[in-house]
Amino acid sequence: MMKPAENVEVPSTRLLPVDARVATRVETATFGLG
Amino acid sequence: MGYTGGSQPEPTYQRLGDHTESFQIDYDPTRLSYEALLAWFWKDADPTERPRNRQYMAAVFYADETQKELALATAKRALGERSGPIALPILPLGPFYRAEDYHQKYYLRRYTDLMREFSAYSEREFEDSTVAMWLNACVGGELKWEELEAELEHFTLSEAERHQLRSLARAALAHRRR
After folding, report:
1. Which letter, b or e, does each residue of B129-146 get, where b requires 16 or more Cβ atoms within 10 Å of its Cβ?
2. Predicted ipTM beyond 0.85
3. DSSP 8-state class, residue A11
4. Are residues B68 and B151 in the same domain?
5. Structurally, how many domains does chain B consist of?
């Protein structure tokens, strides 16, 4: 029997397109609302 | 959306203490610079304005020295020809406490037809969702169809996926606040 491959990323169908893609690099900016 | 800048641990909307209502933007620096975000911020903020109260205070919370230098440099630029000190708070970022769920994607939450699309999301996934951000901006009148189309161009999507997102945006724009 074939073993399932480990550490294979399966695209999520639970999330909407775009959200299912993971950003490679993200930075954060913070502001007070005023 | 959240609370930061104060000393009280675990603030809530009802028990804000000395925190400031704030928002955090996660962005891809290969597509958008911190300086561009600051330029957008200074369009509405006056660097000479002293805060009137702590809860609703226009402020920059910098995460590191680079952000601090850029915040100060762009504040000076925003001053233009005017003289006078920079009074708008430019402060180091401390702990950021997420606001209660109902503060997140505030406009979008009113529309059950659109919210149904996120039924499989956790609250945190919804909060961090790019699609929810787009739709929230659509119903809030902050994002136009052409701008959304341009955004979609940056993602590798199948025709079916593109169609799905366009349909959602169309529905959101139909709800647009007058």
Report:
1. bbbbbbbbbbbbeebeee
2. yes
3. P
4. no
5. 2
* Cα–Cα distance measured from residue A2 to residue A10, given in angstroms and rounded to the nearest whole number: 18
Mean pLDDT of chain B: 94
A-chain residue closest to B128, CA distance: A19
The predicted-structure confidence for B95-134, as pLDDT tens digits, reads as follows: 999 999 999 999 999 999 999 999 999 999 999 999 999 9
Could you list the residue range(s) of the whole structural domain that residue B122 is in?
104-174
Cβ contacts of B162 on chain A, cutoff 8 Å: 17
B157 to A17: CB separation less than 8 angstroms, yes or no: yes
Percent of chain B with pLDDT over 70: 99
Residues B90 and B113 in one domain: no
Helix (H, G, I), strand (E, B) or coil at B35: helix
Query: Where does a domain end: B64, B98, B132?
Result: B98
Per CB-CB distance under 8 Å, the chain B contacts of A29 are: 24-25, 27, 34, 37, 63, 67
The mean-pLDDT minimum among A19-23, B59-63, B81-85, B134-138 falls in A19-23
Q: Report the predicted TM-score, pTM, of the whole model to 2 decimal places.
A: 0.86
Q: Nearest CA to B19 among B37, B5, B35, B33?
A: B5
What's CA B38's distance to the chain center, in Å?
12
The closest CB to that of A33, out of B21, B27, B165, belongs to B21
pLDDT, position B177:
65
| Nearest-by-CA chain A residue for B53 | A34
